From TrEMBL:
Catalytic activity line of the entry: N(6)-[(R)-dihydrolipoyl]-L-lysyl-[protein] + NAD(+) = N(6)-[(R)-lipoyl]-L-lysyl-[protein] + NADH + H(+)
Cofactor note: Binds 1 FAD per subunit.
Taxonomic superkingdom: Bacteria
SUPFAM superfamilies assigned: FAD/NAD(P)-binding domain, FAD/NAD-linked reductases, dimerisation (C-terminal) domain
Enzyme class: oxidoreductase
Gene: lpdA
Name of the protein in question: Dihydrolipoyl dehydrogenase
GO MF annotation terms: dihydrolipoyl dehydrogenase (NADH) activity
Classification of source organism: Bacteria, Pseudomonadati, Pseudomonadota, Betaproteobacteria, Burkholderiales
Metal-binding among keywords: no
Length: 475
């Protein structure tokens, strides 16, 4: 006997669980299916982000930052530390507890909003009377029928060709979060967000970290001036970054990994490390979804094909998040999930891809929204730029963290903000002001005229806006 719902969501990550909750708020009878399991085999909704991505990585980043501060920076504040120790198992245990709190929080939200949760893998069966028949494979198999179906199955880590993840020596983001002890030597292939964040964690804890990047430029998606500032900081920290490399044979053994590669000069190189983290992107996850049974259209990347409103080629079937086009970001998935739920309700849900913020949680943090200077130049857009260094910010000095800057890019004729780029302390928090400003199509002058609290890091944002008109007050 099948159970009928107005909306069935397949996937309980940021896109899925948020879509389910919003649909329930709008009065629909909603089910959400998710297969993630915790260590005890119980449900662990939240997807990659909560279980092996955004949340646990930030927990480890925080722990490793505390360790580095205690060992290297407390003395500057007159704080003496003796007998500094490191308990990796306890650190990982705290990370796991943070994950569990988020898992439990989502289950509570489902209960609060009367969303029916099913623990297992959801897959299409066929079109049925009243919608689409969905099978739930798990400890308690179920059959659901949804008038509307929202697919939010996320993405998986991309492996090197011929080098599968064993999560012991060759690690995805999952294994990188569970390394039981600090490796003496650690390599990363790929200098993307996941690679840099995980590399930062283990470098702070004592590992010798080498990053091998195929592209000739560092962080090509980031504004070039900001990326150069970040690389200077990473180089100073001891993070070894090699650009323009071509990775050859990778051999994993019982005690380590041997990597053959060619450097930017064309010279053959060899690197022996204890562990290797592969961070070369992610691929849409449609595993076990049984798309062929219903004719759900996929593109050449394996992503579900959707239109601008996240509609698939099937009536009343929608898809959001990493499994569709666009940036693979948790907050992008959340916004699409809300928008789809509202569209099902006949409302006008909207997602503005031009104002989706990006963040890399290294130290210094890197955050941006809008277009980069190189993009504006390539498009022939006339613009004005203004920058302000954290070195001249009173709060940053008090924090003892003056690396980086805020950069504004504004239209030369209208002064409308086209992009804001930050490298420095708390960039992930500071970028929100820029997102709000750009959503309201503000000018740099608008931000320059807003009173910012003193002393605060946000004053650097105001000063960078003032710099667009070449009238900074503190630099």
């Amino acid at each position: 006997m099948s159970q009928n719902f107005d909306v069935v969501v397949i996937g309980g990550g940021p896109g899925g669980y948020i879509a389910a909750i919003r649909a329930a708020q709008l009065g629909f009878k909603v089910a959400c299916i998710d297969e993630w399991k915790n260590a005890q085999g119980g449900p662990a909704p939240g997807g990659t982000c909560t279980n092996v991505g955004c949340i646990p990585s930030k927990a480890l980043l925080q722990s490793s930052e505390h360790y580095e501060h205690a060992g290297k920076h407390f003395a500057e504040h007159g704080i003496s530390v003796s007998g500094l120790g490191l308990d990796v198992a306890k650190m990982l245990g705290r990370k796991d507890q943070v994950v569990k709190q988020n898992n439990d929080g989502i289950l509570y939200l489902f209960k609060k909003n009367k969303v029916s949760f099913f623990h297992g893998r959801g897959s299409f069966v066929k079109q049925a009377e009243g919608g689409w028949e969905i099978a739930v494979a798990g400890d308690k198999p179920e059959t659901l029928v949804g008038k509307h179906v929202i697919v939010a199955t996320g993405s998986n880590a991309r492996a090197l060709p011929g080098v599968p993840f064993d999560e012991e020596r060759v690690l995805s983001n999952d294994g990188a979060l569970r390394i039981p002890d600090v490796p003496k030597k650690l390599a990363l292939i790929g200098s993307g967000v996941i690679g840099l964040e995980m590399g930062s964690v283990w470098r702070r804890l004592g590992a010798e970290v080498t990053v091998l990047e195929a592209l000739p430029t560092f962080l090509g998606a980031v504004d070039e001036q900001i990326a150069k500032e970040a690389k200077k900081a990473f180089d100073k920290q001891g993070l070894k970054i090699e650009l323009g490399v071509k990775v050859g044979e990778v051999k994993a053994g019982a005690k380590g990994v041997k990597i053959a590669y060619t450097n930017a000069k064309g010279e053959a190189q060899s690197l022996d490390v204890d562990r290797l983290i592969v961070s070369i992107g992610r691929v849409p996850n449609t595993n076990g979804l049984n798309t062929a049974a219903v004719g759900l259209q996929l593109d050449e990347r394996g992503a579900i094909v959707v239109d601008a409103d996240c509609r698939t080629n099937l009536a009343n079937v929608w898809a959001v998040g990493d499994v569709v086009r666009g940036p693979m970001l948790a907050h992008k998935a959340e916004e699409e999930g809300v928008a789809v739920a509202e569209r099902i309700a006949g409302q006008h849900g909207h997602v503005n891809f031009n104002t989706i913020p990006w963040v890399i949680y290294t130290h210094p943090e890197i955050a941006w929204v809008g277009r980069t200077e190189q993009q504006l130049k390539a498009d022939g857009v006339k613009y004005k730029a203004g920058t302000f260094p954290f070195l001249a910010n009173g709060r940053a000095r008090a924090l003892g963290d003056t690396t980086g800057m805020v950069k504004f890019l504004a239209d030369a004729a209208t002064d409308e903000i086209l992009g804001v780029h930050i490298v420095g302390p708390m960039a992930s928090e500071l970028i929100s002001e820029a997102v709000v400003a750009m959503e309201f199509r503000a000018s740099s002058e608008d931000i320059a005229r807003i009173c910012h609290a003193h002393p605060s890091l946000s004053e650097a944002t105001k000063e960078a806006a003032l710099a667009v008109d070449k009238r900074t007050l503190n630099f």
